[in-house]
Amino acid sequence: MAASQAANIVEKVVGHNDNATVTTDVSNYNKGAYGQETGEKIKATTWQGKNSVQIVEMPKPRVVDEGDVIVKVTGSTICGSDLHLYHGVIPQLEKGDVLGHEFCGVVESVGPTVKKVKAGDRVVAAFPIACGECRNCKEQLTSACERTNENSITNAMYGKRTAGMFGYSHFTGGFAGGQAEYVRVPYGDVNLLQLPADVPDEKGLYLSDVLATAYHCVVDTGVKKGDVVAIWGGGPIGQMAAEYSFSQGATRVILIDGGEGAWRLDFVTSKIPKLETIDFSNLPRGESITSQLKKIVPGGPDVALECAAGEYAKGWAHYFEMLLGMETDTSEILNEMITAVRPFGRIGVTGVYAGYTNHFNIGALMQTGIRFIGNGQAPVQKYWEHLLELIRRQEINPLDMVTHRVSLENMPELYAAFEGRDKGMQKVYVQTRFSSPPAEGSPQLTEL
Ligand SMILES: [Zn+2]
Ligand SMILES: [Zn+2]
């Protein structure tokens, strides 16, 4: 949190740039004049400081810019990357910011320039907020939109910016998120996809992020027919990346997890029986993930996919270096991937890394020709129509990930449960007072 607050102060001094064509930093509807004057109140999940979220009441959002759409939320969820916000490791969260970057719902009202979506449409939102018209958007690189995030810290750290994102701090534009009953969606025509009647919310919701992020990880890293793929992290992204790797023609997929996440190896295998697994917390004496992988795949896998994150150190060196602010992310998994893959192997990094890391094995990368690809935040809008078709044809089933259903009111308890990596909690559907009863094949409501 210290880093987060420091970044806020620096940004206030340095100031925003002026590249955005939407109103940014509308991170809760109590601020300014961003709420409706009707007096109607909504419930929203807000960040209140390190490891603390609260449901608070605030005004219902209104159309601020011409392209805005106001969505009544019927489905939301929590994501592994929300935990980075919860911990305060992503810079520039402010107390009271509304969280949540994955949601679906019904269009309530639209701004004057909105053409494609209309009141009453069932829609899912993409987590990156794109304008649809800048150079990057025209190439469908919507997560790099140049007009929805004017944060100067992002620009200073990365030499460029990500697009604005829902519920993901002022570092990504400061947009209120969808762990709430209503949400403002800028450029609604670009950032909302209509859901057909045969796709229930419980399946459509995950087009927001996880289905597209996992797909992007696999295709962007170039998984092709005959490849052997190793995946670090058995959460929802790793699970779907395993499914997509097989559908892209991989002959073998090996999933790596362990410790508190070890149960996921059995969970994912129950959905994808031909999957192979390595439990890193249960390795034979003297063995490493690299040596284990070389044993079961002579020469090493062709492709390694990072679906975990750099926030969690395995050894003491990185633990202390992060604690002391000498790095923001650990390079342990990256180095395992570099040494595990075959020469000229490909590595895709989709798990979240925020800043700098130490002890990166640049020598091995250079000497053995490793193709090291940062997958970036996924350009969801590039893939979501195709993925919606795959859901309709029953070639993918998002419900394979979904283990729980909880109420929005239970969001603080859900963050705590997710933080504790509660056994058996893979992906959650969060209902609001506007949700329909659970769709066929989706879990019943649990009290937390
Ligand atoms: Zn997410
Ligand atoms: Zn754009």
What structural class should be given to the helix and strand makeup? alpha/beta
Q: Averaging pLDDT over every residue, what do you get?
A: 93
Q: What distance lies between the first and last C-alpha atoms, to the nearest angstrom?
A: 27 Å
Judging by the overall fold, what is the CATH architecture of the largest domain? Alpha-Beta Complex
Q: What do we call the CATH homologous superfamily of the largest domain? A: Medium-chain alcohol dehydrogenases, catalytic domain
Bound ligands, named by name, code or SMILES? zinc ion
The CATH class designation of the largest domain is: Alpha Beta
Principal-axes shape call? globular
Helix content: 25-40%
SS field, number of helical segments: 15
Largest sheet descriptor: 6 strands, parallel
Strand order in space, largest sheet: 12-11-10-13-14-15
Low-pLDDT runs of 5+ residues are: none
How many DSSP E strands? 17
Q: Tally the structural domains.
A: 2
Task: State the CATH topology of the largest domain.
Answer: Quinone Oxidoreductase, Chain A, domain 1
**What is the radius of gyration?**
21 Å
Taken as a percent bin, the fraction of beta residues is 15-25%
Cofactor: Zn(2+)
Keywords: Metal-binding, Oxidoreductase, Zinc
Organism: Aspergillus oryzae (strain ATCC 42149 / RIB 40) (Yellow koji mold)
Domain Enoyl reductase (ER): 49-430
